[in-house]
Amino acid sequence: MKPVGIYIHVPFCRSKCPYCDFYSVRLSEQQIDLFTEETVCRIACLAPKHLNADTVYFGGGTPSLLGGRRISAIMSALRRYADISPDAEITVEANPSADLTEFLEGCAASGINRLSLGMQSADKKELAAIGRRHTPDDILRTMECAHRLGIHNISLDLMLGIPHQTPDSLLNTLEFISECDPSHLSAYMLKIEEGTPFDRMKDTLAVADDDTLADMYELAFSRLRQKGYLHYEISNASKPGSESRHNLKYWNCDPYIGLGPSAHGFFEGRRYYFDRSLESYLSGGQSHDDGEGGGMEEYIMLRLRLAEGLIEKGLQERFGVGIPPAMRLKAASPLMRRYCLCDEQGISLTEAGMLVSNAIICNLTELL
Q1: For the chain: N or C, fewer Cβ within 10 A?
Q2: Given this model, what pLDDT does residue 99 score?
Q3: pTM higher than the cut 0.70
Q4: Any residues with CB less than 8 A from the CB of 316 and at least 6 apart, and which?
C-alpha cells in the first residue's frame, strides 16, 4: 500500500482571529483532555488498516495548545497503531509565543521534526489588526527554542493584503523573514470569508485593492527567489529539499487519513469529512462519505498548482493516457504564452500564471 499522510485537526484557540474560517472553539482544559482521549481511541481503530504513514500533520485551530503531555500521548498512539516511517515528516502548527518551551520539548521528545508558525506579519500594527497576540520577538524566541531542541525544519506563514499592510511594510516583513532564515514559507492572500468578523466589516476595512494585492504577491515571491527559495506551489516556497511533503500529498492526490472535527480525508479512492462539531467528534460521530476522489480531472487541476505542473509521464503512469490534445493546444496558444509553459514534457504555469491560477486552470480544463 502506498504510504499515507495523517492529518489531525486540533480545534482549540484562545480567541478567534477576525479573518479565520477554520473550525475552532475556545480553549477548555476539560474538552482538550477529552479531545486527546478520543483521538487516541480513534487512532487505535486504525490498527486493522495496517497503515504505513510517511507524513503526519497537526493543524488547527492552535495545536500548540495541546501542550507537551497531550502531543506526546497522540504521537505515542500513532507509533503504536500505525507504521510511522523512520524518516517521516511530522509537522505541528503553533502560534509564536513568549514561551513554548514545554510544548516544544514534548514535540522534540516524541519525534516531531517540523514546526509551522503562524507569523502572518512582522509589523505590530498589522498583527493587532488581524487579532494576533504575538510580537516579532516572540517569533524569534520560538524559533530559537525549536532550534535548541533540534527542530530545524521551520515554516512561517505570511498573509498578504491585510489591514494597514503596504508594499513598504511587506518589504520590512520579508527582510525579517530573511533574518529568521526559515526552511519554508507559505504566503496567502487575504480572502474575506463569509460569516467572519472581517466579512461584517468589509466595507470599512483598510485592505489592499486587487492591483496592490497582485503587486504584493509578485514582490513576496520575487524576493524569496532572490534569497534562494523555490516557488514550488502557488502559495508556497522553500529552500531546495524542504518542500512540505504532507501538503504535496494534497496536490498529488495521494491518500491521507483525516481525524478531528471538520477534518477531511482521502483513502481507498473515497473522500470523506467530519462534521464541524467538537461535540459530535467527542460523542463518537463518524465521518461522512464525500464521493470518489483522485480522478483524472481532479488530478490535473491540482497538479497545475505546482511549479512542476502536469507531467505527461506522470499522467500516463497514473491513468494510462497522456495530456489531452485540446489542452495542449490551448496551453500553447498565443493568448496563453504569458501564463503557461507547454512542451513535450508537460504543462506548467509561469509566475504570471500562478498569480491568476484559478482562471487559467479553469480555462485549461473546461473541455475535460
Answers
A1: N
A2: 86
A3: yes
A4: 322
Rounded to 5°, angle at Cα 5 from 284 and 182: 120
Residue 94 pLDDT exceeds 90:
yes
* pLDDT higher at 151 or 1: 151
The answer to the question of residue 269 being in a domain is no
DSSP annotation string for 249-316 = HHHTT--EEEESTT-EEEETTEEEE--S-HHHHHTTPPPEEEEE---HHHHHHHHTTBTT-EEHHHHH
Are 124 and 17 contained in the same domain? yes
- pLDDT of 367 above 80: no
In this structure, the answer to whether residues 37 and 142 fall within a common structural domain is yes
281 in any annotated domain = no
Domain co-membership, 242 together with 342? no
How far apart, in whole angstroms, are the C-alpha atoms of residue 351 and residue 337?
Answer: 12
> What is the tally of structural domains in the chain?
2
343-363 pLDDT per residue, tens: 999 999 999 999 999 999 999
Whether 321 is in a domain gets the answer yes
Query: Could you tell me the CATH number of the domain that includes residue 307?
Result: 1.10.10.920
Backbone φ and ψ for 77, nearest 5 degrees, come out as -65, -40
Residue 292's Cβ-count burial label (10 Å; 0-12, 13-18, 19+) is exposed
Residues 240 and 300 in one domain: no
Residues 6+ apart with CB under 8 A from 191: none
Rounded CA separation 208/215 (Å): 10
Among 86, 91, 119, 88, residue whose Cα is nearest residue 107? 91
Q: Which range of residues forms the domain containing residue 197?
A: 4-251
pLDDT over 90 (residue 206): no
Confidence at residue 1, expressed as pLDDT on a 0 to 100 scale: 74
- Both 180 and 239 in one domain: the answer is yes
User: What average pLDDT does the segment 167-181 reach?
Assistant: 97
Residue 186, Ramachandran bin (φ over 0: left; ψ between -120 and 50: alpha; else beta): beta
Mean pLDDT of the chain: 96
Q: In whole angstroms, what is the distance from residue 156 CA to residue 139 CA? A: 9
Number of helices and strands in the chain (H, E): 15, 17
- Gyration radius of the chain's alpha carbons: 21
Say if residue 233 is in the same domain as residue 335.
Answer: no
Distance CA 368, CA 171 (A): 41
pLDDT for res 5: 98
